[in-house]
Design brief:
The structure holds 2 protein chains of 2 kinds.
Chain A: E1 3-19, E2 29-44, E3 53-56, E4 59-64, E5 68-73, E6 79-86, H1 95-112, H2 118-136, E7 141-146, E8 151-152
Parallel strand pairs in A: 4-7, 5-8
Antiparallel strand pairs in A: 1-2, 2-5, 2-6, 3-4
Chain B: H1 2-24, E1 47-74, H2 77-85, E2 93-109, E3 118-121, E4 124-129, E5 133-138, E6 144-149, H3 155-175, H4 178-196, E7 201-206
Parallel strand pairs in B: 4-7
Antiparallel strand pairs in B: 1-2, 2-5, 2-6, 3-4
The chains are: A alpha/beta, B alpha+beta.
Chain lengths: 154, 207
């Protein structure tokens, strides 16, 4: 693995579920949890080849791979059960049931990240980081491009 | 009268057999599915971005590992009373056993790199990188299996156990010498990257 992570988004999501669809269970139970996820994005340096770097005297052109979502982390200490309403004939949600709901939330977060500006921010941060370094290295004209394909590491 | 009862039983048997046959070939739901709990789905809710942070982390090693963590505590009052009045019964205890799969990313935080640690002269470059560290230790609910959950466990008690699992994963990675390995790989990646950027003479070291 060789990846350069340049952006992290901290995201809050409310997880709402109502368990009232099973016909032989009397009464329902509801849960409301808040989740804070840390989503990191960056570029995969392993995809960078020699031909992606064009140097001409004091000018340099870098063709970098497209930014990717690298991780979606749901730290346990940032998951809170905010509210539970359990019918008198029902058992409370156990850990396995809560984790199953949180796994759905994780999936929703992954698929909704495209609607945020995380990949655009990653391009911006990567460009800033490398431009500063290349300026320090003596390059006067710096052009950094990114691939067009959007990919997500699972 | 008897004949019509036999007729009704005959029809019932034919209907049941036909149902079982259709359930077997998957055209009708099986009898077992009648008592399967309906799946619980969460509502679609929006994401709220709280904070955006610029990073400069070079991930050089990704590791997947698995740990089993256990927590035991005295059971609730009802179980305690039953255990006390039952001759020869062991003390009532609640058990919680989790199988936690985690993913660790190890590498170098380039934010710790100061101007004094980079020396450039013509096509030569020397960089002194900060030491590799654990950049990410991820244990998501989708990767956690509740193997045993007896008794009442509060979300806080479960969170503490999950944090213990994450600490164990980090400790195990350190014991296996993965930080040193990540450090070596960071040096190699940085050296290759610098050569790609046109530097002919490179010297990359770490703390």
């Amino acid at each position: 693995m060789s990846a350069l992570a340049t952006t992290e988004y901290s995201i809050t999501k409310i997880v709402k579920a109502s368990d009232d669809k099973t016909w032989y269970k009397f009464g329902d139970r509801k849960i409301l949890m808040s989740v804070e996820a840390d989503v990191r994005a960056g570029i995969d340096l392993a995809q960078l080849k020699k031909e992606d770097v064009i140097i001409n005297g004091k000018s340099i052109q870098l063709n970098l791979p497209a930014p990717k979502i690298m991780s979606v982390n749901l730290p346990p200490e940032k998951i809170k059960v905010e509210y539970e309403d359990i019918g008198p004939l029902r058992d409370p949600f156990d850990n396995a049931a809560r984790d199953a709901l949180l796994a759905q939330a994780e999936k929703q977060i992954r698929s909704a990240m495209d609607q945020t500006a995380i990949l655009a921010d990653t391009e911006k941060n990567t460009r800033n980081l490398l431009s500063n370094f290349l300026q320090q290295a003596g390059y006067e004209q710096i052009e950094i491009r990114f691939g067009n394909t959007k990919q997500t590491l699972q | 009268m008897t004949r019509s009862i036999f007729k009704i039983i005959g029809y019932a048997v034919v209907i049941v057999l036909a149902y079982l046959l259709l359930a077997k070939i998957g055209w009708l739901p099986s009898p077992a599915s009648w008592f399967r709990p309906a799946p619980v789905s969460i509502d679609e809710t929006p994401l709220l971005v709280n904070r955006i942070r610029a990073l400069s982390e070079l991930s050089s090693l990704s590791v997947q590992d698995e740990v089993v963590v256990t927590q035991i505590k005295p059971a609730g009052t009802a179980k305690q009373i039953i255990s006390l009045v039952t001759p020869g019964a062991a003390p009532a205890l609640d058990h919680l056993v989790l199988v936690v799969k985690g993913e660790l990313e190890l590498g170098t935080d380039l934010k710790g790199l100061t101007e004094q640690q980079v020396f450039i002269a013509g096509d030569s470059i020397a960089i002194h990188l900060p030491a590799a560290k654990v950049l990410l230790a991820q244990i998501n609910p989708s990767q956690t299996e509740t193997f045993i959950e007896e008794g009442d466990w509060t979300p806080d008690e479960i969170t503490k156990l999950k944090i213990k699992a994450r600490d164990q994963l980090i400790e195990r990675a350190k014991q296996k010498g993965l930080l040193q390995k990540a450090n070596e790989r960071s040096l190699k990646i940085m050296e290759d990257f610098l050569r790609t950027l046109g530097f002919n003479k490179t010297s990359v070291s770490s703390q």
